[in-house]
Every structure is written in structure tokens, then in C-alpha cells.
Fold:
Amino acid sequence: MAVAEVYRSMRLAECEQRAFLLYAVGIPSEIVPIHGEFVLVVAEDVRDRALNELRRHEAESHAAFVPPPVTVKLHAGAWIGVLGYALIMLFAAWCAGENLFGVDWREAGALRSSVAQTGEWPRLVTALTLHGDVAHLIANLAFGVFFGYFAGQMLGPGVAWLSILIGAVLGNLLDSLLMSVGSSSIGASTAVFATLGLVAAHSWRQRSDSRMRWAHRWAPLIAGVALLAFTGAGGENTDVIAHVTGFLSGALLGVLHAWKPLASLDDRRVQLAAGLICAGVILGAWGAALR
Structure:
């Protein structure tokens, strides 16, 4: 019986895989070793059919998986949240610069390592609104507005910024527990990196479809960690611990939002209430700190 070659490889396993495929569609085959290679042969009269089956198998195996589009509902009014953030940061900077009410605002509001011992919990909030100099303020304004806008689109302005505040407070709490005795810290960078963690983790969880390639699923989180490393680890006076704890706290909230999304995100009253709570917490913290 005349035979014809339909495949050859240096690897026996590859020929065996194709031989099994042909057997499954009713085409007998044989593997013949020739000059250090393995050759898959079939009867001459079924050669064309065998080749077609193998080509179809190759096409299906190498077809690029096109991930299904990730549907992300964007919420209106994200600019309201970032405007509120910018106004609070600028107003706090002005008050601290003027020593309003005759008080040293940085001394009264800075985060300290002793927060847990002294019970000065308002410092977890007030420290977020203080900055060392203009460059520090501008950097946190720029990054906060940039990341905060995306967070506002994802969750709505009120819920997003309340979540950011919660993440930043948790980050500051961890920072205060980890910082050395007698240390202090100020700046909105904890909130900025909480925002980055929130956006990155929320996007990652929305891409959790197991049919996606790992690169598609993990891309948002990898990008978030890369940005954390690139923007959050430099500078002589950089509080790296606060950046990391803020990012992790925000990421946790992002996962929770994606896992159990609030059905009321489209309700303007919910967004307004969340925004007012956020502003109220900041005002209340400063009221307690300035007593």
C-alpha cells in the first residue's frame, strides 16, 4: 500500500498528537522514524483528507483569542469630584500658610506615629490636606485630579471620593503604626495612591473573565503597580510606606466595589450624600484638631 507523508517533527509527542487527531476522525496513520526525525504517514488515497484535518487543527490551535469587550459604565459628573478635591487642597494650603486662627496647622494636623496611643484620630484625615511646599501641593493636585477623574467615572463622584477618603485613612492608619517613633507625615499622596489602587484593582476585577489571556486580565493591576513604583518611590522626603499602604487600601476597596457593585450608583442623591459625608468628615476632623 502506497503511503504519503503528512507531517514530520523532531519531537515524537507532536506526531503522536496528530496521529491521535487523525484516528479520532477515522484516518489510520503510522509514525516512522527517519534520519532522526519522526514522520507521520497515511495511505495515499486519504492524504488530502488528512492534510485538511491537520490544517484545520493548526488553524484552530493558533487562532488568536480576541478577548470579549469589557463593558464599563461611565458615570457623569466626575469633574465635580476633582473640583471639590482641588478646592479643599488649595483652601487647606491657604489656611496653613496663613496660620489661620493663630494656629500652626501643620503641627495640629500632621500624622504622627503616636496616633494609636494618643487617640488623635482626626490626624488620619487632616494630614491628607497638608503639604510641605508648593511643589508638593502641585504634584498631589495633578496626580489626584488625573486618577480621581477616572475613579469618578467608574463609581460616580461622591462614592468615588468617599471611597478614596476611606482608603487614604486606612493607609494613614497603617503608616502611623509602621513609622518610626517620633516621625510625622503630611500630604495627600496617600489619597492619590489610594485612588490609583482603587482604579487599578477595580479595572482588574472587571477583566476577571477566565477566557482572557493572563496579560489582558492582569494588565490594569500591573500598570498600577508600575506607576506606584515609578512615581511613589523617589525623593528624599518621600513617605514610601504611606504610598504603599494607600495603594493597598485603595486596591482592597476597588476589589470590593467590583465584586459587590452598588446598585444605587446612578442615583444622584446617593452620590450627593456620599460627597457631603466626605466633606463633612474632613471639616469635622479639622474642627476637632483645631480645638
